[in-house]
Amino acid sequence: PSIPRHTNRLINEKSPYLLQHAHNPVDWYPWGQEAFDKAKKENKLIFLSVGYSTCHWCHVMEEESFKNKEIGEIMNKNFVCIKVDREERPDVDKVYMTFVQATSGGGGWPMSVWLTPDLKPFVGGTYFPPDDGVHRIGFRTVLLRIAEQWKENKDALLENSQKILEALLHRSEIRVRGQESPPPSKEVMATCFQQLSSSYDEDYGGFSESPKFPTPVNLNFLFTYWALHRTTPEGARALQMALHTLKMMAHGGIHDHIGQGFHRYSTDQHWHVPHFEKMLYDQGQLAAMYSRAFQISGDEFFADVAQDILLYVSRDLSDQAGGFYSAEDADSYPTTTSREKREGAFCVWAAEEIRAFLPDPVEGATEGTTLGDIFMHHYGVKETGNVSPMKDPHQELKGKNVLIVRCSPELTAARFGLEPGRLGALLREGRQRLSTARAQRPRPHLDTKMLAAWNVISGFAQAGAALAKQEYVSRAAQAAAFLRRHLFDPTSGRLLRSCYRGKDNTVEQSAVPIQGFLEDYVFVIQALFDLYEASLEQGWLEWALQLQHMQDKLFWDPKGFAYFSSEAGDPSLLLRLKDDQDGAEPTANSVTVTNLLRAACYSGHTEWVEKAGQVLAAFSERLQKIPIALPEMARATAVFHHTLKQVVICGDPQGEDTKEMLRCVHSVFSPNKVLMLADGDSAGFLYRQLPFLASLERKDRKATAYLCSNFACSLPVTSPQELRGMLCP
């Protein structure tokens, strides 16, 4: 590699995204005091650019503008330039994204915002092309105009930025008005179901025409809605909507049929042509949803997809120390000699490549049939490529195919005169060979930062429990131990946001570690509860409850209720916000409601139930009007309303009878159950927390189950059949 001409301060950072910009001719600073001081001292405006390492348009803007020497000179002369990785600093990203959305009506990344030296935003946008075009003003022009404004109208700009900040403070406030109680669960659930039902795509599943996102939050809501309305037509429709969507996604091109896992989203209605980046948080949530679909339907198809996702995570997104990497990029070099990257190059195929890799004649099929013929027919491969030019504006996929299951196995088998039972093995052989061929291609960039919030512990733990696979539960425990070792400070009792893969594959921490945000606490606590239910190791429970106390201390808003996404006391953060949208991931306040209810069940601290109600009260208006924006919180209103049932199994953890009872609990989807094992160790953590456990005994010396609610228990049962009857009334 040639010696870089330029190097800026980002060379000292750990984030892969910041390091990608370390050799731009722009004099980038990381977010921090050094940059703020320079802006104040030289009375310069700040140009803030926020993105992440797998963001396609971030790469484009870097190639066009940030690598351009002349644009770099304009930036360096007039501005203090700051680069932020939004995955490291979601707090900074949210403050300025709130501004960009409020002032331009849209948002996204790369985000480009100009700030006064005291960090107040006054102009913002997303991607800018370098030069003026017919419809868009170019980045160079914007830079020069803003620099000019600052020279000519400094006072007006400062005054305006103050007004903007006051308006933002007012707009972004989420709080309880008066003495509100939680919204009525029945109405919230019904409205959310209606809103999802009317936006549902009957043919292809999903909840919009295009682009189509996996949105696990919607599926999770529908499963819960079904569980509470099993015998009604609406309940049946909710289940059908969720299962059909999961089936269509698994058949689609958004699912990587050769390399496993799911891409970010589909650009079309059919789940066919995706944006090819793969995000860790999608894999974790989808593994949980496919496991749940299997648990409910008993259809092995869903179990296979869950295992496919977890194979991808274990193989490609796992650090040897137990952590998980954030993402894989969409763009890569088509061949080892290519000069420029193309989107999807790692994943797409020309028809002749498939013919060349799968030339074998297939015995027992119609005369002259090759493995390639069968494979291409089943996965919709066309000689001229199967991507519509409408979905390929840059012609990066011309002549290429994105694999998508186009036929049922029965139809493909019939088309070639095959026994239906033989098709599975033939397709498997085809996928295996293409996987070997694909391994020769240059891989896309891997973002090796590891975040506390983005952990697949819940995915592995839930799949391990529902699919009865102990190795998944062990992988979840290994990941939790990794969090404890690398993303937790035992002296302060606080979580850290991120760590990084360093030289020689060691795990590194930045010089000044980034402290955990609300989402880190919430997703780690959820993961630990799921891991306890799958492993019954009480240590995870104890840690979860300690973290819940810390979350309350750092983020709770005692005046307006609910939790702020960042803690108080950072002077560089202009706003403390509360997110109000369940998007690609559920928002932290939505997940925390169920966490609080579970925490209360495991500890007997009823004030956590009260807090859960207060969170719902703070979001009450939104939950009643547009619950489709908060499906995970809408789901939590039902869990709150129906009261969690404690399923207590009294038995010897090693006993076969105990294991049989546990298998029964794990095989049933019940959204309002909390599982605990009373192993008879009265000095153990759970018995100390919950004195009532001491009064529950084994009947006839057999493993015995009790269903308890508000610390009053049902009659004991000792057979899995009776227990199943109690769990599915």
TrEMBL record:
SUPFAM superfamilies the record matches: Six-hairpin glycosidases (SSF48208), Thioredoxin-like (SSF52833)
Top-rank lineage group of the source organism: Eukaryota
Return the InterPro entries for the record: 6-hairpin_glycosidase_sf, 6hp_glycosidase-like_sf, Ssp411, Ssp411-like_TRX, Thioredoxin-like_sf
Q: Where is the Spermatogenesis-associated protein 20-like TRX domain?
A: 7-168
Signal sequence, renumbered to the chain: none
One Pfam entry name: Thioredox_DsbH
| A biological-process GO annotation | carbohydrate metabolic process
Q: Which PANTHER family match?
A: SPERMATOGENESIS-ASSOCIATED PROTEIN 20
Name-wise, this protein is SPT20 protein
Species of origin reads Ciconia maguari
The protein's gene is named: Spata20
